[in-house]
Each structure stands twice: as structure tokens, then as C-alpha cells.
């Protein structure tokens, strides 16, 4: 009963806030046809075709997420996002790649996947010219130029540019999902690093590699830090 009353109270507060925000909107042109965007919102200055678009936009300001998943409780601002999410529970993936048969719940995800086959990297860094497939990858890369490291390790305070690197680092503290060398007691966060390390135990170094030699025994290594 308390939960139902609390939910109802929260809903009323959000509607009241939305109504208050709606009162801040204004019709810029009273005569139809004088503007392609007759409705504007004073708080952010964005313009819209109609009140319906404005009402949807207000969710960005109010934080309202009216569409709730009854499977996991996750909430969404938009019905189409909710529908795509429900596909993940049902296992539905209607969008299929013609080149490798991979399937996706969203057409947008399929288009992003196709850039792998086409070799497209449409997002370029204006500072160094490096190109990326995803806008999110470019955003993370730009942080390296700005020196921004927003992700902080809760164990040692180490800072990282990318969340993925921080999560890998945390494994060193927790010991979770670490990859162990079966020749010695060293552990690694990435398989690629483990494979590189394993070369120091092998008798032969792959051709074209082994640029670092031990001054004591002459043994050669791929990396100086092994």
C-alpha cells in the first residue's frame, strides 16, 4: 500500500512539474504557416513543430521515464526504446547482417556493425586526424588530448580516461577474472598481454620479433618490460 501511494505521489509531482514547464512554452506565431517551428521552450530555447513534440522534450528536463519493463524494472523515456528493450528479453533480433549472419534488435545497431565490413571510420579527431567507427570512441579519444581522466579507481585512486580501462584495472585489486600464466605466478587482465608474456617462456621467439636481448644470457624478448 505504501509503495502504491508513494508511486502515485511521485507521478503527481512529475505531472505538476511538467505542467509548470509547459506553462513556460510560448507560441511564437499566432497565424499558421508563418513558421516551421511555432512552439518554443524558454528554458533551453529549443523550437518544435507542435505541443506534442514539446511535451516529449520536457522529459529531458523532468527526468520522466514512463515506460517500465515488467521483467527487470528498467525504465525508458521513449516507447520505441522500451519496445527494443523488450526484444532483448524475448530474444528477438529481426535485423540480420547479410555478410556474416549476425543479428541485432535495432536497425541502428546493424548499420553500426556494417561499418566493420565496409571499413568505414566516419568520426575523425580534429586534433590528430585519427578516425573512429563510433562517435563514443571519438569522444573517449578526445579525452586523451584534453587530459581528462574522469574514471577513478575506488581502491587506489588511480585515474583513467576510459571506463573499460578502469574496470580492467580494478581486477588487479579484486583478483576477479584474471588470466594466469601456467608457467609462473604472474596474472594479467587481458589475453593479449598474457600471450605476449608467454613468449618469454618459449624457447624460440617468433621471426621478426625479439628486439630486446638479456645482457646476461642473450635470451631475446618481444617487449622490454617482460
TrEMBL record:
One of the record's GO molecular function terms: DNA-binding transcription factor activity, RNA polymerase II-specific
Keyword Cell division applies: no
Gene Ontology biological process terms from the UniProt entry: positive regulation of transcription by RNA polymerase II
Localisation per UniProt entry: Nucleus
Keyword annotations from UniProtKB, A to Z: DNA-binding, Metal-binding, Nucleus, Repeat, Transcription, Transcription regulation, Zinc, Zinc-finger
Pfam family, one: zf-C2H2
Sequence ranges of Basic and acidic residues compositional bias: 1-11
Top-level taxon in the UniProt lineage: Eukaryota
Any single Gene Ontology cellular-component annotation: nucleus
Key word DNA-binding present: yes
Ranges for domain C2H2-type: 37-66, 67-94, 95-122, 123-150, 151-178, 179-206
Region (Disordered), start-end ranges: 1-24
Family: Belongs to the krueppel C2H2-type zinc-finger protein family.
UniProt function note: May be involved in transcriptional regulation.
PANTHER family assigned: PAIR-RULE PROTEIN ODD-PAIRED, ZINC FINGER PROTEIN ZIC AND GLI
Protein name, UniProt field: C2H2-type domain-containing protein
Organism from which the protein derives: Gambusia affinis (Western mosquitofish)
Amino acid at each position: 500500500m505504501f509503495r502504491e501511494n508513494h508511486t502515485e505521489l511521485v507521478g503527481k509531482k512529475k505531472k505538476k512539474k511538467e505542467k509548470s514547464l509547459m506553462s513556460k512554452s510560448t507560441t511564437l506565431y499566432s497565424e499558421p504557416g508563418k513558421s516551421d517551428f511555432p512552439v518554443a521552450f524558454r528554458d533551453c530555447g529549443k523550437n518544435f513543430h507542435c505541443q506534442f513534440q514539446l511535451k516529449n522534450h520536457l522529459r529531458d528536463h523532468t527526468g520522466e521515464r514512463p515506460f517500465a519493463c515488467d521483467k527487470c524494472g528498467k525504465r525508458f523515456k521513449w516507447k520505441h526504446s522500451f519496445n527494443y528493450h523488450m526484444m532483448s528479453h524475448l530474444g528477438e533480433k529481426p535485423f540480420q547482417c547479410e555478410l556474416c549472419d549476425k543479428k541485432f534488435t535495432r536497425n541502428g545497431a546493424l548499420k553500426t556493425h556494417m561499418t566493420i565490413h565496409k571499413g568505414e571510420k566516419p568520426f575523425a579527431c580534429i586534433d590528430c586526424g585519427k578516425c573512429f567507427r563510433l562517435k563514443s570512441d571519438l569522444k573517449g579519444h578526445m579525452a586523451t588530448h584534453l587530459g581528462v581522466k574522469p574514471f577513478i579507481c575506488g581502491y587506489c585512486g588511480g585515474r583513467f580516461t576510459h571506463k573499460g580501462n578502469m574496470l580492467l584495472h580494478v581486477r588487479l585489486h579484486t583478483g576477479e577474472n584474471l588470466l594466469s600464466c601456467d608457467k609462473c605466478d604472474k596474472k594479467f587482465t587481458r589475453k593479449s598481454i598474457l600471450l605476449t608474456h608467454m613468449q618469454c617462456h618459449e624457447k624460440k621467439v617468433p621471426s621478426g620479433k625479439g628486439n630486446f636481448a638479456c645482457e646476461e644470457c642473450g635470451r631475446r624478448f618481444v617487449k622490454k618490460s617482460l
